[in-house]
UniProtKB/TrEMBL annotation:
<keyword id="KW-0238">DNA-binding</keyword>
<dbReference type="InterPro" id="IPR001367">
    <property type="entry name" value="Fe_dep_repressor"/>
</dbReference>
<dbReference type="InterPro" id="IPR036390">
    <property type="entry name" value="WH_DNA-bd_sf"/>
</dbReference>
<dbReference type="InterPro" id="IPR022687">
    <property type="entry name" value="HTH_DTXR"/>
</dbReference>
<dbReference type="InterPro" id="IPR022689">
    <property type="entry name" value="Iron_dep_repressor"/>
</dbReference>
<comment type="similarity">
    <text>Belongs to the DtxR/MntR family.</text>
</comment>
<dbReference type="Pfam" id="PF01325">
    <property type="entry name" value="Fe_dep_repress"/>
</dbReference>
<feature type="domain" description="HTH dtxR-type">
    <location>
        <begin position="1"/>
        <end position="62"/>
    </location>
</feature>
<keyword id="KW-0804">Transcription</keyword>
<dbReference type="Pfam" id="PF02742">
    <property type="entry name" value="Fe_dep_repr_C"/>
</dbReference>
<dbReference type="InterPro" id="IPR050536">
    <property type="entry name" value="DtxR_MntR_Metal-Reg"/>
</dbReference>
<dbReference type="GO" id="GO:0003677">
    <property type="term" value="F:DNA binding"/>
</dbReference>
<protein>
    <submittedName>
        <fullName>Metal-dependent transcriptional regulator</fullName>
    </submittedName>
</protein>
<dbReference type="InterPro" id="IPR036388">
    <property type="entry name" value="WH-like_DNA-bd_sf"/>
</dbReference>
<keyword id="KW-0805">Transcription regulation</keyword>
Amino acid sequence: MNTADQYLKTIYVVQKQEDGPASTGSIADALGVSPASANEMIGKLESRGLAEHEKYKGVRLTDDGIVQARDALQTYCIIERFLANVLAVDEFRAEARELEAVIDDTVADRLDTIIDREPECPDCFDPETDACACLEVAAVPVESEQ
């Protein structure tokens, strides 16, 4: 997955959360980049026919953009579930974000055979928790005050 895919994935999720065009500010915040950087990449996505940006309204993915975003989101969920469920990595979300930029489709497909991905993926991604809803992560016990 490359940087463009990370943007597509983020725009896709933000669009669903905002139930409409994704604002540049929301995209920038989600990716931890400046709004100027987000605008630059949105322009590149638009020139590739993957997104449509309307000034002051936000950005929407085209049909091709949605397909590529869903593929990127599915790859992210595969990586996240592998790290959490197979390797039991504590900081699996941070690791998944780092790895998603360097994992190619071949590696993702091979990881997919190990995790036994759910058929609803990538719709299993829960933007509220910023994680795959199919994760088998034990709940962290809340310490009681005494």
